[in-house]
Amino acid sequence: MAKVLSAVAWPYANGPRHIGHVAGFGVPSDVFSRYMRMAGHDVLMVSGTDEHGTPIMVAADADGISPQEEADKNNRIIVEDLVKLGLSYDLFTRTTTVNHEKVVQELFVGCRNNGYMIVQETPVAIDPKTGNTLPDRYIEGTCPICGAAGARGDQCDTCGNQLDPQDLIDPVSKISGLSPIFKSTEHYFLDLPALAQRLGEWLGEVEESGSWRPNVIAFSKHLLDDVRPRAMSRDISWGIPVPGWEDQPSKRLYVWFDAVIGYLSASIEWARRRAEAGTGSVDDWREWWNNPEALTYYFMGKDNIVFHSEIWPAELLAYNGEGARGGEPGNFGKLNLPTQVVASEFLTMEGKKFSSSKNVVIYVRDVLSRYQPDALRYFISIAGPETSDSDFTWEEFVRRNNSELVAGWGNLVNRTAAMIAKNFGEIPARGELEDIDRALLDAVRKGFDTVGNFIAAHQQRAALTEIMRLVGEANGYVSHTEPFKMKDPALRERLGTVLNVLAQTVSDLNTMMSVFLPHSSNAIDQVFGGAGDIAPMPQLVEAADLDSGHPYPIITGDYSQVRPWASCEVQPGTPIAKPKPVFQKLDASVVAEELERLGLGSIEK
After folding, report:
1. Distances (CA, A) of 13 to 152, 338, 420
2. Neighbours of 524 (CB within 10 A)
């Protein structure tokens, strides 16, 4: 049994999240974490809302409230949405806790003590309308390297090169649309050149392992072509104070220095909460961070690769003292580098890039208010942006729901339960098996290895496709054996055998499906006489800051009692009642209604 850290990208708390966000960080990390628990591993899945930086201040100004109130408001919205989606976090917290601030400052001091934080003067972009410092991503212009429009102040997505805002041609503020004013000021920089050799060695090691997605490793290696010191502080009033610069309250640590450290601070908070509840030790987090045998997986969209395959590993190496300047680990000890950066590509909507400002957006809570959460989880898993960009259309959402979930998996579940209820009222005993029975049972049992290996390798689309292929085989078995025609009393034993085989098949497929579709899997488990807890669900818990007492909701849960990733024999005699459909068929009118709701009724594809 391995210690497995699922480090899930932190959603930014300047507003509710759309389905493109959860397609990148949410559903893939939950599927993986649920599977790894069922496979017997000790999983710690952590994340939270990212709450510092200029965008929070901009949103707060627009709402006429303080940045903390803005963060509080959106933190709760995001927490509620992720719980409804069924994401099984051990702890989902936030970056405005005192615990997080202390952990971030410890990392900063450790990096500085080892010589990897250097002070330099640098041009800082100021929005002429608001007077606030502009984060790099809030400045857009033409890329000076490839000439592409829409390059950001930190990176050009077209050519993949890192940029500085002052390098952009004709830069403008995304907040005001005006040209930013640049002024020179002192800031701390992470000395990436002093860490580049070890970073390159590490990326070479992970490339040799062959476990990373090719697009992620290629992009990550490309980052080493332009390594230079990167600013880790900002002129801003909303953020974590810089140790040693307490006399300069306008200097704060850059939100992206602080946000990636959230994986560590959330792990430490998780251990502290367990210790407070009397169920663990404050040092339990070290099993995932100091143990060299632990496995650590980071889940995000591709726009965050640079921070997880360069900046965060560089911070860890600097803290560990593993760069060109040497050094010693700080109070947290030697911290593990990522085992894998699992980055998804982009999800578009009806052929267009998601944009809240242009109303080209589908918020998670809006989908969950009208449709089953597993319908969204299914679409993301079977058609999401795993290794290439993919497009969400309402037409395809409805088609997959109706033709695959309802007509495929739902039909198998319903008619199996209905035939058992009608003919026996309980799972019948199994008589002598025929070749066709053994073939189906063997195929499904082999599916545990095939599907599990796909999920472990982050090939979730292939895994779910294999499950649905087995669903098709099971439906074919029904068509071939025709149990609904076995009305002769002389065929009753054979009827019982076929329905027992089908009950076993549904049970095994439901175990596999539970990592993808936890809500419906629990419902199906109840249909077949179970307790309905095959997939443990997350809970929203009203909590308080462990140091300040400030109230906020967290996501947590008890996932210790999970069904093993293996076939579990069904028990003859288990009562089965006439079932109700688990999945809801959607009317074709949904497509026009949703496009009209978005003002996209006449959208051009």
Report:
1. 20, 25, 49
2. 27
Closest listed residue to residue 222, CA positions, set 168, 136, 159:
159
Q: List CB contacts of 570: < 8 A, sequence separation 6 or more.
A: 427, 500, 503, 504, 507, 528
Q: Positive or negative CA dihedral for 58, 63, 69, 74?
A: negative
CA dist., res. 370 & res. 368, Å (int): 5
Each residue of 563-576: pLDDT tens digit? 999 999 999 999 99
DSSP character string of 339-377: SEEEEE-PEEETTB--BTTTTB--BHHHHHHHS-HHHHH
Amino acid in the structure at residue 553: P
Q: At 269, which helix (H) or strand (E)? A: helix 262-277
Q: Please state, as a whole number, how many other Cβ atoms lie within 10 Å of the Cβ of residue 233.
A: 25
- pLDDT tens figures, 128-173: 987 777 878 789 999 999 999 999 988 888 887 878 888 899 999 9
pLDDT beneath 50: ranges in the chain: 603-605
Say if residues 37 and 455 touch (Cβ distance below 8 Å): no
Residues 6+ apart with CB under 8 A from 156: 143, 145, 146, 148, 163
